[in-house]
Amino acid sequence: MTSIPANLQAVKQRLALALQAAGRPPAAAVLMAVSKTWPAGAVREAAEAGHTVFGENYVQEGVSKILDPALAGLQWHFIGPLQSNKTRLVATHFDWVHSIERLRIAERLSTQRPPDSEPLQVCIQVNVSGEDSKSGVSPAECLELARQVSMLPNLRLRGLMCIPEPSHDSALTRQRFATLRALLEALRRDGLDVDTLSMGMSDDLELAVAEGSTMVRVGSAIFGNRQYQAISKE
Ligand SMILES: *Cc1c(COP(=O)(O)O)cnc(C)c1O
To answer: How many helices (H) and strands (E) does the chain have?
Structure first.
């Protein structure tokens, strides 16, 4: 059976070794614990083990954890597909959104961000796998969307996110991460102040860290294999 604190420790160790192997400083990448489909009690176990950064895919499920008084003081990242009828909840409750792929959604988030909140930290999701994956802007569209998002007043553009197609070919996966890294460098050359590469999951975090990931999103290696899709289908 899984022990969340022990799994968390093991993943932190993997991350530390990957950073070391890449010649990067120990704090160069943040670990996000992806708690989608897991109950508040699982988040609490991780939080009591000292973890503070969590990711959720489904708006309703995420908001119910964010509003749970037993889980106060944590940082919450929205990493799933976002439809316009859910932007207000996300703008109100989350700290980060990694899955921006349309200007219209970004504009709504900026307008709906409460005035007394910090700017919403956002990443643009890029489809680095071509036709195999449906979510994200194409690499060709990334710079233009980044320029537009960077001008929205209540958002702060932090960088780029990707989910490569599932593959057993680690050279291919690494190539996808390299594509995202090159795109982030292009944004910087364009003058955008971006620092985040959100890439790497349970099965491929080492490859992502080797290509410069600054935030890995890890679910099953911490919480166990997800047994069901989502608490609420949206
Ligand atoms: C579920 C999910 C993760 C975590 O995946 P694991 O393979 O369980 O580590 C990371 N990022 C996104 C966008 C996800 O939907």
So the answer is: 9, 8
